[in-house]
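It is worth pausing here to work through a concrete case rather than discussing structure prediction in the abstract. The textbook approach is simple: state the sequence, then state the predicted structure, then interpret. We follow exactly that order.
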Amino acid sequence: MEIIWTPQAEKDLERNIDYLLQDWSEKVAQSFVQSVTQTIKQISKNPNTFQRYESSKIRFVLIVPQITLFYEVDENKVVLLRLWNNKQDPLRRKL
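Step two, the predicted structure:
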């Protein structure tokens, strides 16, 4: 299954990695990237495994306790929408 990153998802990933490198360590950042990669592999194998977001076509999975990945399945591709920081205001969530 093809994986497509939206510009927003790419920006979210970069921000999270930058934060981890700045405030934590390279090891923590690498662990986060491995978790993202492993989760995306799981999604590509079985995209409907994870829970739907409300009543939409969007699904989500917790990458680490602080970050949730939102994605959508569209025929033979998975579109990664956001890597949402769970500490952000949920009312500001734009998927």
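Step three, interpretation. The mean pLDDT is 92. The radius of gyration is 13 Å.
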